[in-house]
């Protein structure tokens, strides 16, 4: 046998949309966990503790005392240490290093959780027609997210004591876009498993409006996080005894204030949330009219929880764990909203 060492091509198999859907739901859950750990990383000021991007060798933390000291010496060279954490102990450095390391490890895990099964399903020819490019795009988005994460960290290594809030917003919103894409595709595959003649859901005009409104709220929330704007007021509904807070710096013009002033961005985030809530409640109403009452009730419950957690975060003075739950619930809200919009899109498919 001259070709005995050549592996035979796998026999053609029937597509397995139900199995692929379960896989994507699992990855979506992992993305929500990563978003939560990212919130902890930000709130503990841990994001700049690892000053290099080593996708392969960075998987392992330092394994010796000398290794820890070497990493700590690198951290001592950046402005955050010199201007904020001067005098930090090695034990304190290990604590912040852990959260950033865990965040990066989980990000790699998301990539592996997408790429390895995707390669397996492709080799087994188990991917339904038309879904291969979409699944590959989702996997590529994870790689892009890793690059964006380093781009964000790099903004705080030379001249700043924190990362750019614009880059932080890009990092977070890309993760939430990935989450929505996973949920939408999983629901398409779930539908295909039940009805092989079904077509993918479409994005309707009203759905695009809901997405735009929600995008603004998520962007403002990311800016609040990046600018530590949650700390400028700890009262609700008034901000330091004023509806429109004092302290907004208009000297550089309206656009600079809108994109950089913590008082104004906090104000906009807390009140635009009511616009977003109304849009999502109208979405829930549409679901209920279609007979999807369970999904409608879930959406209303998550919206209410997110609003209450937002208010609680403010009045607690940005208690870390309350703020983390606010961020995690925001990710869950994105997933639930994506599923709801998909349900509406099935009607127009």
Summary tags:
mainly alpha; 2 domains; 349 residues; 0% strand
Tell how many strands the DSSP assignment holds.
0
Order of helices and strands: HHHHHHHHHHH
How much helical structure, as a percent, in the residues?
A: 55-70%
Helix run count? 11
* Distance linking N and C termini: 53 Å
- Number of structural domains: 2
By oligomeric state, this entry counts as single chain
Structural class: mainly alpha
Q: What can be said about the biggest beta sheet?
A: none
Q: Please state the overall shape, judged from the principal axes of the Cα atoms.
A: flat
Percent of residues in beta strands = under 5%
Q: Spans of 5+ residues with little confidence (pLDDT < 50)?
A: 1-5
What do the pLDDT scores average to?
A: 93
| Cα radius of gyration in angstroms | 23 Å
Descriptive overview:
This protein has 349 residues and is mainly α. The chain has 2 domains: 14-163, no CATH class; 201-349. It is built from 11 helices and no strands. Helix 5 packs antiparallel against helix 6 (165-194) and helix 7 packs antiparallel against helix 9 (262-289). The longest helix is centred in the first third of the chain and has 34 residues, at 90-123. 38% of the residues are buried. Keywords: Cell membrane, Heme biosynthesis, Iron, Membrane, Metal-binding, Oxidoreductase, Transmembrane, Transmembrane helix. It catalyses: Fe(II)-heme o + 2 A + H2O = Fe(II)-heme a + 2 AH2. One of its GO terms (molecular function) is heme A synthase activity. InterPro entries: COX15/CtaA_fam, HemeA_Synthase_type2.
């Amino acid at each position: 046998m001259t070709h005995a060492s050549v592996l035979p091509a796998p026999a053609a198999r029937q597509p397995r949309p139900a199995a692929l859907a379960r896989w994507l739901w699992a990855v979506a859950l992992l993305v929500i966990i990563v978003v939560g750990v990212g919130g902890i990383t930000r709130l503990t000021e841990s994001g700049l503790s690892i000053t290099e991007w080593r996708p392969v060798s960075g998987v392992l933390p330092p394994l010796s005392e000398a290794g820890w000291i070497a990493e700590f010496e690198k951290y001592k060279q950046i402005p955050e240490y010199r201007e904020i954490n001067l005098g930090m102990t090695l034990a304190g450095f290990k604590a912040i290093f852990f959260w950033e390391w865990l965040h990066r490890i989980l990000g790699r895990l998301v990539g592996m959780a997408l790429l390895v099964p995707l390669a397996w399903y492709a080799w087994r020819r188990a991917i339904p027609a038309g879904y291969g490019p979409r699944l590959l795009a989702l996997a590529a988005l994870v790689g892009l997210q890793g690059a964006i994460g380093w781009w964000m960290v790099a903004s705080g290594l030379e001249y700043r004591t924190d990362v750019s809030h614009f880059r932080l917003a890009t990092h977070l919103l890309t993760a939430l876009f990935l989450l929505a894409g996973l949920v939408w595709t999983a629901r398409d595959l779930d539908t295909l498993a039940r009805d092989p003649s079904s077509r993918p859901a479409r994005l309707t005009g009203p759905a695009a409006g809901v997405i735009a409104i929600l995008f603004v709220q998520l962007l403002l929330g990311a800016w609040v996080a990046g600018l530590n704007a949650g700390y400028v007021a700890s009262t609700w509904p008034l901000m330091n005894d004023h509806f429109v807070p004092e302290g907004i710096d208009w000297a550089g013009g309206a656009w600079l204030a809108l994109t950089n002033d913590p008082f104004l961005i906090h104000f906009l985030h807390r009140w635009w949330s009511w616009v977003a809530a109304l849009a999502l409640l109208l979405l829930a109403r549409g679901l209920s009219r279609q007979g999807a009452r369970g999904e409608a009730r879930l959406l209303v419950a998550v919206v209410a929880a997110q609003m209450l957690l937002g208010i609680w975060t403010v009045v607690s003075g940005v208690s870390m764990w309350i703020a983390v739950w606010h961020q995690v619930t925001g990710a869950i809200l994105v997933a639930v909203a994506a599923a709801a919009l998909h349900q509406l899109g099935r009607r127009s498919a």
